[in-house]
Amino acid sequence: MKMKLIFTTMLTLAFVLQMFNRYFIFLGYQVNQEAYIKNCINKAKPALRCKGKCQMLSKLKQEEKKDQNNPDRKGEKKDVTPQYINTTANVVVLSNISFSSTYPPQINDLTIVHKSFATFRPPCC
User: Fold this and answer.
1) What digits encode the pLDDT tens for the residues 85-95?
2) Full DSSP string of 18-36
3) CA 62 remoteness from chain centre
């Protein structure tokens, strides 16, 4: 029971960290603003008054590139509906299959029989 709780907590924490990654970068900027100012690219241009925002924006752009490279990381809604819905059942009848030590086994005769669901009637009450 305790192991299940630990696993669930870790998995939930991983999802939260992934979803709110941008906010954690911004929070890190707010907490460590002096370090961002120290590593600022625009030190030579004091008129921009960047205060380390260039560093934060570069980290955000890196995260966006990671999201573009890995679409599963974004958490976008995916279409899980089937591509087509088949109304007839295809029954495959295998009449002569020769099994040998070679892979894949050789199929000599393959017949496809179509069965329709149009004649299906549900049972009466």
Assistant:
1) 555 555 555 55
2) HHTHHHHHHHHHHHTHHHH
3) 19
Domain definitions of the chain by residue range: 2-74
CA nearest 114: which of 93, 94, 95, 88?
88
Residue 37 confidence class, pLDDT cut points 50, 70, 90: confident
| Average pLDDT over all residues of the chain | 72
Peptide bond into 123 cis (omega under 30): no
* Stated pTM of the model: 0.44
41/13: higher pLDDT:
13
Give me the torsion for CA of 79, 82, 83, 85, rounded to 10°. -150
DSSP H or E run through 55? helix 53-69
Query: Is the Cβ–Cβ distance between 94 and 110 less than 8 Å?
Result: yes
Residue 4 dihedral angles phi and psi, to the nearest 5°: -65, -40
What SS3 state is found at 46?
A: helix
